[in-house]
Amino acid sequence: MAIPRMRTAEGVLTEIKAQDPNSEVTLHYIRYLIHTEKVPVVSVGRKKLVDVDAVSSFLTYGSPNEQQKPMLGEIRRVAV
Known about the structure:
This protein is an alpha+beta fold. It has a domain at about 20-65. The protein is about 45% helix and about 15% strand. The protein contains four helices and three strands. It has helices at about 10-20, 25-35, 50-60, 65-70; strands at about 5, 40-45, 45-50. The chain has a three-stranded antiparallel beta sheet. Helix 1 (about 10-20) crosses helix 2.
């Protein structure tokens, strides 16, 4: 079992910038993901830690919950 690479928001941004120096991902966006818990969060005292790989996966594939929501303007069945 691999140990998850847990980082603060600043640490996640550093890891992303190390892999892609021209990345447009911002610290504000990473903090937004943490605050809304779109990625798994572990609270350690006052710090919030997230897995760098989970953030990377979210940026690549998006949230599974977002894929299940009906699109705007989509016709859906209504229960009677």
